[in-house]
Amino acid sequence: MIESVSMSQTPTQKAPRPVNRRTRTLRAFVTGLAVISIYGLISVLPKHFDLWTATKVFGANLQLMFFSPNVGNDSHLLLMQALFASIELAFVTTVLGAGIGLVCGLAAAENIAPRWLSLTTKSVMAFVRAIPTILWVLIYSVALGLGPNAAVVGLTFHSVAYLAKVFANTIEEIPAQTIEALRAGGCGLLPVLCQAVLPSLASRLLSWTFIRFEINFANAVVVGAAAGAGGIGYQLFVASNFYFNFHEVGMIVYYILAFVFVLEAISTKLRHKFID
């Protein structure tokens, strides 16, 4: 009796936790990535690099950009026209990408299209998405020459692949019983799309399209200089790399930030009105 009581009062020892192989692999990957990043940062620095001097110069440049911005060699009207050119590029490529991407998304959705067509479309779209947008723009710049045409085709190309994936994933969320019931009732593809797909998914398709518009605007700023497409990105490139006018760079950044804030406000309004 005494032995049983004493044994019952003995605290139980916790069994050692088994080693999680996934956690070990993740820790090793993060450690290796950190070591490579630190080594790469050290190797690219010049031998006589002065961190304190570089920090002071960087701080002084930031002060010039954000505390004393001006239009420099340009004018407010020219910068506004350049900003609207970038917005127009983003809008056109988003509309084209949404239209073609919806067709490709329907072809990639497994509950709408045949399996062979779905797999083929998804494979092609995955290949297009694997190549960054800027590379597509540069590829078309070689074929079409520098200018807005290459930027429009390159941005649209990647927008189609992006939106086709998210549209297909959204369409595949429709219950298969709903589509099968419509098909059993004698409905063809067009009635199925008009009665089951578009009415129930219009808000989410709009949400994804607006997200892509935000991405395309950022890409339009980047390719403005890389592909000679003009716009606010080209003005930013000229001010920073040719004139070294940090005052104008700051003004251009403020123009971009102002539009981003307006875009976020519109996105919030649309989300509350149509999506939520």
TrEMBL record:
Residues in ABC transmembrane type-1 domain copies: 83-267
Organism, scientific name: Lacticaseibacillus manihotivorans DSM 13343 = JCM 12514
Entry annotated with the keyword tRNA processing: no
GO BP annotations listed: transmembrane transport
Entry keyword set: Cell membrane, Membrane, Transmembrane, Transmembrane helix, Transport
Cited Gene3D superfamilies: MetI-like
CDD domains registered for this protein in UniProt: TM_PBP2
Segments of skewed composition (Polar residues): 1-13
Keyword GTP-binding recorded: no
Any single GO CC term annotated in Swiss-Prot or TrEMBL for this entry: plasma membrane
Subcellular location: Cell membrane
Protein family according to the UniProt entry: Belongs to the binding-protein-dependent transport system permease family.
Coiled-coil region: none
Transmembrane regions listed in the UniProt entry: 26-45, 89-113, 134-161, 181-203, 215-237, 249-266
Region (Disordered): 1-20
Main location: membrane
Name of the protein in question: Phosphonate ABC transporter, permease protein PhnE
